[in-house]
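fyi for ur records
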Amino acid sequence: EEMVQPMPPPLARPADSRRAVRLISLDCTGTLFEWSAPIGELYSRSAARALGPEHAVPDGGVVMEAFAPAFAEGLRRWPNYGYGELSSRDFWSKVAQATFQ
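which gave:
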């Protein structure tokens, strides 16, 4: 005979109807969609288009190497993508600036 274990209590509290949901973040990469090229290459191409041919832009491999420490530093300085301190746009702008410096 199989023993049935009771369900553990839920980890999350019930939603408080007085508080509105302000953000839902989903990571869909690799499940719902795939990038058309490595992300460093896409960032490099975007920077080249935005800056124009008169500016030198690092290739995708260099961008990816620079992104990891820039992103880690961004999260260290502004946890939760800048929540309470920066807009998400400003957070990512600072990470992008640090990546391309």
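The chain has a mean pLDDT of 85. thats all i got for now
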